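Box S1 | Example of a co-folding query
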Amino acid sequence: MTNNKMKIASRFSKAVCFLLIVMLFILSSCMLSIDTSDDASTPSSIFESGDVSLQIDSDESVDESIDESSDDESNGEAVIPPEDSTFEVHFIDVGQADAALVICDGKTMLIDGGNKGDSSKIYTYLKNQGVTHLDYIVGTHAHEDHIGGIPGALNLVSSVGKVYCPVTEFDSNAFADFKKYVEAKGKTLTVPTVGEKFMLGSAEVLIVGCDPAAEDPNNTSIVLKITYKETSFLFTGDAEASAEEKIVNSGYDLSATVLKVGHHGADTSTSYRFLREILPEIAIISVGKDNSYGHPTEKTLSILEDADAKIYRTDLSGDLIVKSDGENVSVTTSKNEQTENDTSSSLPSEPTEKYDYVLNKNTKKFHYPSCNSVASMSEANREFYNGTRDELIAEGYKPCGNCHP
Ligand SMILES: [Zn+2]
Ligand SMILES: [Zn+2]
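Box S1 (continued) | Returned holo structure for zinc ion
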Protein backbone atom coordinates (compact mmCIF):
# COMPACT_ATOMS: atom_id res chain seq x y z
CA MET A 1 0.00 0.00 0.00
CA THR A 2 2.65 2.47 1.07
CA ASN A 3 4.68 1.37 -1.90
CA ASN A 4 1.76 2.07 -4.20
CA LYS A 5 1.19 5.45 -2.59
CA MET A 6 4.83 6.30 -3.07
CA LYS A 7 4.66 5.25 -6.72
CA ILE A 8 1.60 7.42 -7.24
CA ALA A 9 3.29 10.29 -5.42
CA SER A 10 6.42 9.99 -7.53
CA ARG A 11 4.37 9.76 -10.74
CA PHE A 12 2.48 12.83 -9.61
CA SER A 13 5.66 14.79 -8.92
CA LYS A 14 7.09 13.66 -12.30
CA ALA A 15 3.94 14.93 -13.99
CA VAL A 16 4.21 18.23 -12.13
CA CYS A 17 7.86 18.51 -13.15
CA PHE A 18 6.94 17.81 -16.79
CA LEU A 19 4.18 20.39 -16.67
CA LEU A 20 6.55 22.94 -15.17
CA ILE A 21 9.10 22.31 -17.93
CA VAL A 22 6.43 22.66 -20.60
CA MET A 23 5.21 25.90 -19.04
CA LEU A 24 8.76 27.25 -18.81
CA PHE A 25 9.29 26.38 -22.45
CA ILE A 26 6.09 28.15 -23.52
CA LEU A 27 6.94 31.16 -21.39
CA SER A 28 10.45 31.47 -22.79
CA SER A 29 9.24 31.21 -26.38
CA CYS A 30 6.65 33.87 -25.63
CA MET A 31 9.38 36.15 -24.37
CA LEU A 32 11.44 35.44 -27.45
CA SER A 33 8.63 36.37 -29.76
CA ILE A 34 8.03 39.53 -27.77
CA ASP A 35 11.67 40.39 -28.31
CA THR A 36 11.55 39.91 -32.05
CA SER A 37 8.38 41.88 -32.50
CA ASP A 38 10.05 44.69 -30.60
CA ASP A 39 12.98 44.46 -32.98
CA ALA A 40 10.68 44.59 -35.93
CA SER A 41 8.99 47.72 -34.72
CA THR A 42 12.06 49.73 -33.76
CA PRO A 43 13.56 50.15 -37.22
CA SER A 44 10.25 51.29 -38.66
CA SER A 45 10.18 54.46 -36.64
CA ILE A 46 9.75 56.43 -39.84
CA PHE A 47 6.39 54.90 -40.54
CA GLU A 48 3.22 56.38 -39.15
CA SER A 49 1.43 54.12 -36.69
CA GLY A 50 -0.19 51.15 -38.35
CA ASP A 51 2.45 50.73 -40.98
CA VAL A 52 4.42 48.32 -38.85
CA SER A 53 1.94 45.57 -39.63
CA LEU A 54 2.48 46.22 -43.31
CA GLN A 55 6.07 45.21 -42.93
CA ILE A 56 5.20 42.11 -40.97
CA ASP A 57 2.27 41.03 -43.13
CA SER A 58 3.96 42.10 -46.30
CA ASP A 59 3.00 38.84 -47.99
CA GLU A 60 -0.69 39.59 -47.75
CA SER A 61 -0.45 43.12 -49.06
CA VAL A 62 1.81 41.96 -51.85
CA ASP A 63 -0.56 39.24 -53.01
CA GLU A 64 -3.32 41.74 -53.22
CA SER A 65 -1.35 44.35 -55.07
CA ILE A 66 0.07 41.97 -57.62
CA ASP A 67 -3.24 40.44 -58.69
CA GLU A 68 -3.49 42.70 -61.72
CA SER A 69 -0.20 41.56 -63.10
CA SER A 70 -0.62 38.55 -65.31
CA ASP A 71 2.65 37.07 -64.12
CA ASP A 72 2.87 33.57 -62.88
CA GLU A 73 5.43 34.44 -60.22
CA SER A 74 4.79 37.61 -58.42
CA ASN A 75 4.37 37.14 -54.71
CA GLY A 76 7.94 37.50 -53.61
CA GLU A 77 8.42 33.78 -53.03
CA ALA A 78 11.75 32.30 -54.03
CA VAL A 79 11.73 31.20 -57.63
CA ILE A 80 14.26 28.63 -58.74
CA PRO A 81 16.19 30.22 -61.59
CA PRO A 82 15.99 28.34 -64.88
CA GLU A 83 19.18 26.70 -66.18
CA ASP A 84 19.69 29.44 -68.73
CA SER A 85 18.85 32.22 -66.28
CA THR A 86 20.19 35.66 -67.17
CA PHE A 87 20.17 39.05 -65.51
CA GLU A 88 21.22 42.39 -66.94
CA VAL A 89 20.66 46.06 -66.37
CA HIS A 90 21.05 48.57 -69.18
CA PHE A 91 21.76 52.06 -67.93
CA ILE A 92 20.67 53.97 -71.01
CA ASP A 93 22.60 57.17 -71.66
CA VAL A 94 19.91 59.85 -71.62
CA GLY A 95 22.19 62.74 -70.71
CA GLN A 96 21.20 64.65 -67.58
CA ALA A 97 18.40 62.20 -66.73
CA ASP A 98 17.82 58.59 -65.66
CA ALA A 99 16.74 55.46 -67.53
CA ALA A 100 17.44 51.80 -66.85
CA LEU A 101 16.11 48.63 -68.43
CA VAL A 102 16.27 45.50 -66.30
CA ILE A 103 15.93 42.12 -68.01
CA CYS A 104 15.80 38.88 -66.03
CA ASP A 105 14.87 35.53 -67.56
CA GLY A 106 12.99 37.34 -70.32
CA LYS A 107 10.99 39.52 -67.91
CA THR A 108 11.44 43.27 -68.27
CA MET A 109 11.27 46.36 -66.10
CA LEU A 110 11.93 49.95 -67.14
CA ILE A 111 13.06 52.20 -64.30
CA ASP A 112 12.65 55.78 -65.52
CA GLY A 113 12.81 56.86 -69.16
CA GLY A 114 14.74 60.13 -69.38
CA ASN A 115 13.37 63.48 -70.56
CA LYS A 116 10.59 64.00 -73.12
CA GLY A 117 13.29 64.49 -75.72
CA ASP A 118 14.67 61.02 -74.94
CA SER A 119 11.43 59.27 -75.97
CA SER A 120 12.81 58.25 -79.34
CA LYS A 121 16.07 57.00 -77.84
CA ILE A 122 14.08 54.88 -75.36
CA TYR A 123 11.87 53.59 -78.20
CA THR A 124 14.87 52.60 -80.31
CA TYR A 125 16.89 51.17 -77.45
CA LEU A 126 14.06 48.92 -76.27
CA LYS A 127 13.25 47.92 -79.83
CA ASN A 128 16.86 46.86 -80.40
CA GLN A 129 16.63 44.76 -77.26
CA GLY A 130 13.58 43.00 -78.70
CA VAL A 131 11.28 44.32 -75.98
CA THR A 132 7.59 43.97 -76.93
CA HIS A 133 6.07 43.82 -73.44
CA LEU A 134 7.13 45.53 -70.22
CA ASP A 135 6.26 43.63 -67.06
CA TYR A 136 6.91 46.67 -64.91
CA ILE A 137 7.50 50.36 -65.39
CA VAL A 138 8.77 52.39 -62.47
CA GLY A 139 8.65 56.17 -62.66
CA THR A 140 10.81 56.83 -59.60
CA HIS A 141 9.31 60.32 -59.20
CA ALA A 142 7.36 62.90 -61.17
CA HIS A 143 10.26 65.02 -62.49
CA GLU A 144 10.51 65.21 -66.27
CA ASP A 145 14.04 63.80 -66.44
CA HIS A 146 12.64 60.53 -65.05
CA ILE A 147 9.16 60.09 -66.52
CA GLY A 148 9.35 62.37 -69.58
CA GLY A 149 10.62 59.72 -72.02
CA ILE A 150 8.54 56.78 -70.76
CA PRO A 151 5.90 57.46 -73.48
CA GLY A 152 8.59 56.33 -75.96
CA ALA A 153 8.54 52.89 -74.32
CA LEU A 154 4.74 52.84 -74.14
CA ASN A 155 4.58 53.64 -77.85
CA LEU A 156 6.71 50.62 -78.62
CA VAL A 157 5.33 47.84 -76.43
CA SER A 158 2.04 46.11 -77.04
CA SER A 159 1.30 45.63 -73.35
CA VAL A 160 2.38 46.61 -69.85
CA GLY A 161 2.06 44.72 -66.58
CA LYS A 162 2.15 47.31 -63.87
CA VAL A 163 3.20 50.97 -63.64
CA TYR A 164 4.53 52.36 -60.37
CA CYS A 165 4.91 56.01 -59.42
CA PRO A 166 4.96 57.67 -55.97
CA VAL A 167 2.21 60.10 -57.03
CA THR A 168 -0.77 59.87 -59.38
CA GLU A 169 -1.04 63.62 -60.00
CA PHE A 170 1.64 66.19 -60.79
CA ASP A 171 1.33 69.55 -62.42
CA SER A 172 3.46 69.33 -65.58
CA ASN A 173 2.95 68.58 -69.26
CA ALA A 174 5.50 65.78 -69.08
CA PHE A 175 3.56 64.08 -66.29
CA ALA A 176 0.22 64.55 -68.05
CA ASP A 177 1.69 62.87 -71.15
CA PHE A 178 3.15 60.03 -69.13
CA LYS A 179 -0.20 59.40 -67.46
CA LYS A 180 -2.07 59.62 -70.76
CA TYR A 181 0.16 56.97 -72.38
CA VAL A 182 -0.17 54.69 -69.35
CA GLU A 183 -3.94 54.98 -69.48
CA ALA A 184 -3.93 54.31 -73.22
CA LYS A 185 -2.47 50.91 -72.31
CA GLY A 186 -5.44 50.31 -70.02
CA LYS A 187 -3.39 50.82 -66.84
CA THR A 188 -3.36 53.27 -63.98
CA LEU A 189 -0.47 54.52 -61.87
CA THR A 190 0.08 52.45 -58.74
CA VAL A 191 1.72 53.93 -55.66
CA PRO A 192 3.86 51.19 -54.14
CA THR A 193 4.02 50.36 -50.45
CA VAL A 194 7.36 50.30 -48.67
CA GLY A 195 8.14 46.65 -48.00
CA GLU A 196 6.30 45.42 -51.09
CA LYS A 197 8.06 42.64 -52.97
CA PHE A 198 7.63 41.13 -56.39
CA MET A 199 9.53 38.85 -58.71
CA LEU A 200 11.06 39.78 -62.04
CA GLY A 201 11.91 36.35 -63.44
CA SER A 202 14.07 34.83 -60.72
CA ALA A 203 15.15 38.24 -59.37
CA GLU A 204 13.41 39.68 -56.34
CA VAL A 205 12.44 43.33 -56.26
CA LEU A 206 11.89 45.02 -52.88
CA ILE A 207 10.55 48.54 -52.45
CA VAL A 208 12.70 50.04 -49.68
CA GLY A 209 11.64 53.65 -50.06
CA CYS A 210 8.71 55.69 -51.36
CA ASP A 211 7.33 58.71 -49.56
CA PRO A 212 4.43 60.25 -51.52
CA ALA A 213 3.95 62.86 -48.77
CA ALA A 214 7.47 64.30 -49.07
CA GLU A 215 7.52 67.98 -49.97
CA ASP A 216 10.34 67.81 -52.49
CA PRO A 217 9.46 65.50 -55.41
CA ASN A 218 13.02 64.12 -55.28
CA ASN A 219 12.30 62.76 -51.81
CA THR A 220 9.15 60.97 -52.97
CA SER A 221 11.44 58.75 -55.07
CA ILE A 222 10.75 55.05 -55.26
CA VAL A 223 13.92 53.38 -54.04
CA LEU A 224 14.16 49.69 -54.82
CA LYS A 225 16.57 46.84 -54.39
CA ILE A 226 16.80 44.00 -56.88
CA THR A 227 18.43 40.81 -55.68
CA TYR A 228 19.61 38.26 -58.20
CA LYS A 229 21.21 35.27 -56.45
CA GLU A 230 24.31 36.62 -54.68
CA THR A 231 24.29 40.01 -56.39
CA SER A 232 22.07 43.03 -55.83
CA PHE A 233 21.28 46.39 -57.34
CA LEU A 234 19.98 49.48 -55.57
CA PHE A 235 18.07 52.13 -57.54
CA THR A 236 17.62 55.41 -55.76
CA GLY A 237 15.93 57.82 -58.18
CA ASP A 238 16.71 61.34 -56.97
CA ALA A 239 16.27 60.58 -53.24
CA GLU A 240 18.20 63.10 -51.16
CA ALA A 241 19.78 62.87 -47.71
CA SER A 242 16.54 63.17 -45.71
CA ALA A 243 14.92 60.35 -47.70
CA GLU A 244 18.12 58.32 -47.39
CA GLU A 245 18.01 58.71 -43.64
CA LYS A 246 14.44 57.43 -43.45
CA ILE A 247 15.41 54.43 -45.55
CA VAL A 248 18.40 53.64 -43.34
CA ASN A 249 16.19 53.93 -40.26
CA SER A 250 13.66 51.52 -41.74
CA GLY A 251 16.19 48.77 -41.16
CA TYR A 252 16.23 47.06 -44.57
CA ASP A 253 19.38 45.37 -45.73
CA LEU A 254 20.63 47.94 -48.22
CA SER A 255 23.92 46.26 -49.11
CA ALA A 256 24.26 46.13 -52.87
CA THR A 257 26.83 45.13 -55.47
CA VAL A 258 25.76 47.95 -57.75
CA LEU A 259 24.38 51.35 -56.77
CA LYS A 260 22.60 53.70 -59.15
CA VAL A 261 23.89 56.84 -57.45
CA GLY A 262 21.14 59.19 -56.24
CA HIS A 263 20.23 62.43 -58.03
CA HIS A 264 22.84 62.28 -60.81
CA GLY A 265 25.71 62.54 -58.30
CA ALA A 266 24.48 65.75 -56.63
CA ASP A 267 25.95 66.31 -53.19
CA THR A 268 22.48 66.49 -51.64
CA SER A 269 22.38 62.69 -52.04
CA THR A 270 24.74 59.78 -51.22
CA SER A 271 25.11 60.69 -47.57
CA TYR A 272 27.82 58.92 -45.64
CA ARG A 273 25.43 56.91 -43.47
CA PHE A 274 23.42 55.71 -46.48
CA LEU A 275 26.51 54.74 -48.46
CA ARG A 276 27.95 52.89 -45.48
CA GLU A 277 24.88 50.62 -45.51
CA ILE A 278 25.20 49.93 -49.23
CA LEU A 279 28.97 49.64 -49.72
CA PRO A 280 28.66 49.09 -53.46
CA GLU A 281 31.42 47.60 -55.56
CA ILE A 282 30.16 49.56 -58.54
CA ALA A 283 28.55 53.00 -58.60
CA ILE A 284 26.68 54.16 -61.70
CA ILE A 285 26.13 57.87 -62.22
CA SER A 286 23.61 58.87 -64.88
CA VAL A 287 24.64 62.36 -65.83
CA GLY A 288 24.86 64.73 -68.83
CA LYS A 289 28.15 65.94 -70.22
CA ASP A 290 28.97 69.51 -69.07
CA ASN A 291 25.60 69.83 -67.36
CA SER A 292 24.76 73.15 -65.75
CA TYR A 293 24.23 71.61 -62.30
CA GLY A 294 27.86 70.61 -61.87
CA HIS A 295 26.83 66.96 -61.41
CA PRO A 296 28.45 64.79 -60.30
CA THR A 297 30.05 66.86 -57.57
CA GLU A 298 33.57 66.34 -56.24
CA LYS A 299 32.07 65.55 -52.86
CA THR A 300 30.01 62.66 -54.22
CA LEU A 301 32.87 61.32 -56.31
CA SER A 302 35.25 61.38 -53.37
CA ILE A 303 32.84 59.74 -50.92
CA LEU A 304 32.29 56.95 -53.47
CA GLU A 305 36.01 56.66 -53.99
CA ASP A 306 36.55 56.48 -50.24
CA ALA A 307 34.06 53.63 -50.14
CA ASP A 308 36.17 51.86 -52.78
CA ALA A 309 33.37 51.82 -55.31
CA LYS A 310 34.32 51.70 -58.96
CA ILE A 311 32.57 54.60 -60.63
CA TYR A 312 30.98 54.50 -64.08
CA ARG A 313 29.38 57.59 -65.61
CA THR A 314 27.07 57.71 -68.60
CA ASP A 315 28.59 61.04 -69.70
CA LEU A 316 31.98 59.35 -70.05
CA SER A 317 31.01 55.79 -70.97
CA GLY A 318 27.67 56.14 -72.79
CA ASP A 319 25.18 53.29 -72.38
CA LEU A 320 26.32 50.88 -69.69
CA ILE A 321 25.33 47.23 -69.52
CA VAL A 322 25.83 45.48 -66.21
CA LYS A 323 25.43 41.71 -66.35
CA SER A 324 25.26 39.37 -63.40
CA ASP A 325 25.83 35.63 -63.43
CA GLY A 326 24.53 35.51 -59.89
CA GLU A 327 27.96 35.77 -58.29
CA ASN A 328 29.90 38.28 -60.32
CA VAL A 329 28.90 41.34 -62.25
CA SER A 330 30.58 42.67 -65.36
CA VAL A 331 30.23 46.07 -66.96
CA THR A 332 30.23 46.79 -70.66
CA THR A 333 30.55 50.40 -71.73
CA SER A 334 29.41 51.50 -75.16
CA LYS A 335 32.06 54.17 -75.70
CA ASN A 336 35.21 52.16 -75.14
CA GLU A 337 33.59 48.76 -75.51
CA GLN A 338 35.47 46.91 -72.88
CA THR A 339 34.22 44.36 -70.42
CA GLU A 340 35.66 44.14 -66.98
CA ASN A 341 35.07 41.71 -64.21
CA ASP A 342 34.31 43.72 -61.21
CA THR A 343 33.74 41.75 -58.10
CA SER A 344 36.11 41.09 -55.30
CA SER A 345 35.74 37.34 -55.73
CA SER A 346 37.16 37.53 -59.23
CA LEU A 347 40.17 39.55 -58.19
CA PRO A 348 43.52 37.83 -58.16
CA SER A 349 44.70 37.21 -54.63
CA GLU A 350 48.30 38.08 -55.49
CA PRO A 351 49.48 41.32 -56.98
CA THR A 352 50.43 40.89 -60.61
CA GLU A 353 51.87 44.29 -61.48
CA LYS A 354 55.37 45.44 -60.72
CA TYR A 355 54.30 47.38 -57.63
CA ASP A 356 53.36 45.65 -54.40
CA TYR A 357 50.57 48.05 -53.45
CA VAL A 358 48.78 51.17 -54.53
CA LEU A 359 48.10 53.76 -51.85
CA ASN A 360 45.33 56.30 -51.63
CA LYS A 361 47.01 59.19 -49.84
CA ASN A 362 43.65 60.81 -49.19
CA THR A 363 41.77 57.86 -47.69
CA LYS A 364 44.92 56.29 -46.20
CA LYS A 365 43.96 52.92 -47.64
CA PHE A 366 46.18 50.55 -49.57
CA HIS A 367 45.13 48.23 -52.39
CA TYR A 368 46.50 45.54 -54.63
CA PRO A 369 47.35 47.08 -58.00
CA SER A 370 44.61 44.89 -59.50
CA CYS A 371 41.87 46.31 -57.24
CA ASN A 372 38.87 47.92 -58.95
CA SER A 373 39.20 51.10 -56.99
CA VAL A 374 42.69 51.80 -58.28
CA ALA A 375 41.32 52.66 -61.72
CA SER A 376 38.88 55.22 -60.34
CA MET A 377 41.37 56.78 -57.90
CA SER A 378 42.36 60.31 -58.77
CA GLU A 379 45.98 60.67 -59.79
CA ALA A 380 46.58 63.27 -57.12
CA ASN A 381 45.71 60.75 -54.38
CA ARG A 382 47.40 57.72 -55.94
CA GLU A 383 50.86 56.48 -55.04
CA PHE A 384 52.56 53.27 -56.11
CA TYR A 385 54.40 51.47 -53.36
CA ASN A 386 57.00 48.76 -53.07
CA GLY A 387 57.34 47.32 -49.60
CA THR A 388 55.54 45.24 -47.03
CA ARG A 389 52.04 45.30 -45.63
CA ASP A 390 53.36 45.77 -42.10
CA GLU A 391 55.30 48.86 -43.11
CA LEU A 392 52.14 50.39 -44.52
CA ILE A 393 50.09 49.58 -41.45
CA ALA A 394 52.84 51.09 -39.30
CA GLU A 395 52.51 54.24 -41.42
CA GLY A 396 48.82 54.41 -40.59
CA TYR A 397 47.45 52.86 -43.80
CA LYS A 398 44.50 50.46 -43.69
CA PRO A 399 43.91 47.54 -46.08
CA CYS A 400 41.12 47.98 -48.64
CA GLY A 401 37.93 46.13 -47.74
CA ASN A 402 37.47 44.92 -51.33
CA CYS A 403 40.78 43.41 -52.37
CA HIS A 404 41.95 42.53 -48.84
CA PRO A 405 45.69 43.15 -49.34
ZN1 LIG B 1 16.68 63.55 -61.84
ZN1 LIG C 1 14.25 64.82 -59.59
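Residues 347-399 form one domain. Residues 29-74, 337-353 have pLDDT under 50 and may be disordered.
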